[in-house]
Amino acid sequence: MFILLCIAAFILAFMAANVIHSVYQKHFVGKYSVKWSDEIGTIYSDIAYGEKEANKFDIYVPADNTKNTYGLIVYLHAGGFTTGDKADDAATLEYYCSLGYVTAGINYTLRTNANPEANIYTQSMEIKSAIPAVVEKAKDLGYNCDRLCMAGGSAGGCLALIYAYRDASESPIPVKMIFEGVGPSSFYPEDWKSYGTDQSAEVAASLFGLMRGEAVDPAIFGTEAYDELMKPISALLWVDENTVPTVLAYGMYDRVQPYNGAVRLDAKLTEAGVDHVFIVCEHSGHGLQNDTKKLAEYSAAVEEYLAKYMGE
Question: What predicted TM-score, i.e. pTM, was given to this entire model?
Fold first, then answer.
C-alpha cells in the first residue's frame, strides 16, 4: 500500500505541474511575447509524424522566407508526462518565430489510463522520430533549417535534454544548444525522497520502473547496472565534453522534481567543461514563480546563447 501511495503522489504532483507550468510560462514569456499576425509568420498545425494519435506537431515559420538557412527551435510541452499539449506553448513559439527562427511544438503519447504503456523512454523515442519530420516539413515550406535548439519545461525539459544529449549524434541537423526549466535529468533514490524513495528501495524501484518502462531490481541501486538501465532516460548519464551548450533554470525548493538532481547536472556539466548557465531560483519550487529577477536572468541567458550558437 505504501508503494501505491508514493506512486500516486508522484502522478498527482506531476499532473499539478501542468498548472504550475502556466505560472512559469507567465513569468518566462512576460515581455518575451508578440501580437501574432501574418506579418510575423504562419502557423501550420497538427502535422502527423507517426501513426499514433498524439504524433502531431505544429510548425511556425517566419514571414521572411528569403534566407538561405534558418535555425530551428523545438519547444516541448510540460504536464508531468501525463497531461499537456503543444498549444500550451504557443506564445513562446510565436515569440521565437518573430525573431526569425522556425519553431515547432511536438505532442507525444501521454501516460494515461488509455495509454498505460507510455513512459519517459517511449515519449523520448517519439520525439526522436518527430525531429526529422519537422525538418522535412520546414524544407517543404521553403525553410532550409541547418541548426537546432531543443527546449522545454518540466516534462518537456526532461525530453528536450534527452534528445539534445542522447540523440544529438543522430539528429538530421546539428544540435547547437538547449535551454530548459525544471526538467528531471537523473533518477537516484536519495534525490527523489519527496516521494518516499529514501525510505523504501521497493518504492524507488516501482517509481523509477514506471518512468523507465522496465522493471527495476532494488538490489542494483548504486551500481553501474542501475545507471545502464536508466541511461536511456537520464540526460545526466550522457554528459561529456561533446555535450551541447546548455541554459538551465531550477527552483531550490522544488518537490515535484528534485533540486538535488539539478545540482548533479550542473556539476557534471562543469566537470565536462560544457559551456552552460545554471540559474537557481532561490525562493521557488517547481513553478519558479517567486524569482522574477532570476527568470529575467534565464531569459537573458537564453537570448545570449541563441545569438552565440544559433546565429547565421
Answer: 0.94
CA distances from 250 to 178, 183, 245, 288 (A): 15, 8, 17, 7
DSSP letter string over 144-206?
-EEEEEEEEETHHHHHHHHHHHHSGGG-SS-EEEEEEES------TTT-GGGTTTT-HHHHHH
Measured distance CA(37)–CA(42) in Å, rounded: 8
Tens place of pLDDT for every residue, the chain, 312 residues? 445 444 444 554 554 455 445 554 555 555 568 999 999 999 999 999 999 999 999 999 999 999 999 999 999 999 999 999 999 999 999 999 999 999 999 999 999 999 999 999 999 999 999 999 999 999 999 999 999 999 999 999 999 999 999 999 999 999 999 999 999 999 999 999 999 898 999 999 999 999 999 999 999 999 999 999 999 999 999 999 999 999 999 999 998 999 999 999 999 999 999 999 999 999 999 989 899 999 999 999 999 999 999 997
Distances in whole angstroms, Cα of residue 41 to Cα of each of 132, 187, 194: 22, 40, 44
CA 227 to chain centre: 20
For the chain, the domains span 2-309
Residue type, 239: V
Tell me whether residue 114 is exposed, middle or buried, using C-beta atoms within 10 angstroms of its C-beta: 0 to 12, 13 to 18, 19 or more: exposed
CA angle 214, 215, 217 (to 5 degrees): 140
Q: What is the CATH number of domain 2-309?
A: 3.40.50.1820
Q: 289: which 3 cell numbers? A: 514563480
How is residue 184 written as a grid cell? 528531471
